[in-house]
C-alpha cells in the first residue's frame, strides 16, 4: 500500500497521477488527497515560487477516477497575496476545481486566538481503531450482512486513527460530532502543509453519525483557512461537527489542532446525505 510519501515521491503533475485503490473512497479519490495533490501541483508548476498557503476553496464536481490530470493557472501573483487555480480532471471529465490563496506574513497590531481545543487527552490515551475496527462497530445487528466496503472507505487505511470524543458513524447520534487523533502512516519528506491537507478531510462527515442505517454520503465542497505552520510527522486532533442538516444536505464545521493545542486549520463543508 503506497503511503503519502511513496505516492508523492515521483509525482509529476505534467504526467498526471493514477491513484491506487487504497487512496479511493468508492470509485473516486479521497477528497483530501485530491486537494493535496492539487496543492503540490501548484507548487511544482508555479515558476517563481509561492508564499505560505492561507486559504482554499474546493468544489468536488465529479468522480476523480482513472488518470488524474492537473491544470494550474496563476490568477494573480501579487507582492503579498497570490491566487492560483487548479483544475483536476479524471477519466469522466472535470473532477475538482481548487482555488488556492497564498500570502506572506506581515506585522500586525491585532493578534488573538479565541479557539479552544476539545477537552480530550493526548493520543497515547486512546486505543487505535483500524478500518476493520470501524467496520466492526458499524456491522452490528441488524447490519451484520452489510458490505462495509461501501461505508468504510479504503483510504482510511493510510492513517492511524484514535477516536477521542463524539460519536462513530451510523450510531444515531443526537449530537452529530466526531473528534479523533489522526496521523499519517508515513509522510516523511512531504511538505508539512501538503501532508496536513491530505489528512484534514479524513474524518467521516459528521452527519453520518446521526444515520440510523448505512447509506451514502458525499462531500460537495470544502473550504478552509490555514492558521499556523503544521509540524511534520505528528498527531493532529480533528473535529467535525454538523450544525445544520435538512433537504438532504449537511453544513459542517471542521477544525485541526496540533498536540500542543494550536489551532492550525478551520474549515467548512457541504455534504450530500442520501438517506
TrEMBL record:
Query: Which family, according to the similarity comment?
Result: Belongs to the C/M/P thioester hydrolase family.
UniProt domain Acyl-CoA thioesterase-like C-terminal: residue ranges: 148-271
Pfam families listed in its UniProt record: 4HBT_3, 4HBT_3C
Coiled-coil spans in chain: none
Name the keywords, alphabetized.
Answer: Hydrolase
Which GO terms of the molecular function aspect are on file?
Answer: fatty acyl-CoA hydrolase activity
Q: Which domain of life is it from?
A: Bacteria
A single cellular component GO annotation: cytosol
Q: What is this protein called?
A: Acyl-CoA thioesterase
A Gene Ontology biological process in which this protein takes part is: fatty acid catabolic process
* Residue intervals of the Acyl-CoA thioesterase-like N-terminal HotDog domain: 19-102
Amino acid at each position: 500500500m503506497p503511503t503519502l510519501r511513496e505516492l508523492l515521491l515521483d509525482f509529476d503533475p505534467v504526467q498526471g497521477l493514477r491513484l491506487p485503490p487504497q487512496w479511493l473512497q468508492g470509485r473516486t479519490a479521497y477528497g483530501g488527497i485530491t486537494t493535496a495533490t492539487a496543492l503540490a501541483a501548484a507548487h511544482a508548476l508555479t515558476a517563481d515560487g509561492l508564499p505560505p498557503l492561507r486559504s482554499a476553496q474546493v468544489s468536488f464536481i465529479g468522480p476523480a477516477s482513472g488518470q488524474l490530470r492537473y491544470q494550474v493557472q496563476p490568477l494573480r501573483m501579487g507582492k503579498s497575496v497570490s491566487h492560483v487555480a487548479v483544475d483536476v480532471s479524471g477519466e469522466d471529465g472535470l473532477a475538482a476545481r481548487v482555488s488556492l490563496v497564498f500570502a506572506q506574513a506581515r506585522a500586525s497590531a491585532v493578534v488573538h486566538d479565541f479557539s479552544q481545543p476539545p477537552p480530550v487527552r493526548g493520543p497515547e490515551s486512546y486505543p487505535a481503531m483500524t478500518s476493520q475496527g470501524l467496520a466492526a462497530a458499524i456491522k452490528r445487528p441488524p447490519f451484520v450482512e452489510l458490505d462495509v466496503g461501501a461505508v468504510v472507505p479504503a483510504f482510511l487505511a493510510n492513517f492511524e486513527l484514535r477516536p477521542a470524543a463524539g460519536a462513530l458513524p451510523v450510531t444515531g447520534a443526537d449530537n452529530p460530532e466526531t473528534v479523533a487523533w489522526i496521523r499519517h502512516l508515513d509522510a516523511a519528506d512531504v511538505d508539512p502543509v501538503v501532508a496536513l491537507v491530505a489528512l484534514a478531510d479524513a474524518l467521516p462527515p459528521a452527519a453520518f453519525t446521526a444515520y440510523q442505517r448505512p447509506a451514502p454520503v458525499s462531500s460537495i465542497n470544502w473550504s478552509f483557512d490555514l492558521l499556523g505552520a503544521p509540524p511534520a510527522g505528528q498527531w493532529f486532533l480533528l473535529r467535525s461537527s454538523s450544525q445544520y442538516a435538512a433537504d438532504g444536505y449537511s453544513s459542517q464545521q471542521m477544525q485541526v489542532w496540533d498536540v500542543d493545542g494550536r489551532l492550525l486549520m478551520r474549515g467548512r463543508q457541504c455534504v450530500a446525505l442520501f438517506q
